Amino acid sequence: MNKNFVMNQIGVIHANEEGFYLKVKEEFRDALIGIEDYKYINVMWWFSKSDNITDRNNLVEEKPYHKGPEKLGIFATRSPQRPNPIALSCSCITYVDREKGIVGLTYIDANDNTPLLDIKPYIPSLDRVEEVTSPKWSKHWPENVESSGDFNWEEEFNF
């Protein structure tokens, strides 16, 4: 059964000289009530620059990581080129201005003016995994979001 889905863009992600923040559209601002009680959120966004037929048909990535295997299926990567260009980032909240629809972040790996799809609170009992398994070639990556800010991710990715 094939279905087409409709998503509503709830705002925009900003990543520029002013910092990192989410700007939620006015009609969705009431949905921010209580978000300031969380330190971390999961942000779903649209890889808008990869929303084209070529990128959506990419199923295999050739050497996506400098220290990784020669080939990986797209679902084993964080590549923006995928059948549905949906991204997920865990981000730390720095402030919330519900009236203006602003959620300040320490960092997010999105481009400026990226479409924002959804925000969910990071809840350890649902989102945290105690025993993680990852490939040997990525064992040198940081173990958590807090320490990944100092890591040079540009040296890792080929996409």
Automatic annotation (TrEMBL):
Pfam family, one: TrmO_N
Top-rank lineage group of the source organism: Bacteria
Keyword Methyltransferase part of the UniProt annotation: yes
Residue stretches spanning the membrane: none
Gene Ontology terms describing biological process: methylation
Keywords of the record: Methyltransferase, S-adenosyl-L-methionine, Transferase
MF-aspect GO terms: methyltransferase activity
Residues of the TsaA-like domain: 7-131
Entry keyword annotation includes Iron: no
PANTHER family reported in the protein's UniProt record: TRNA (ADENINE(37)-N6)-METHYLTRANSFERASE (PTHR12818:SF0)
Similarity comment: Belongs to the tRNA methyltransferase O family.
Protein's UniProt name: tRNA-Thr(GGU) m(6)t(6)A37 methyltransferase TsaA
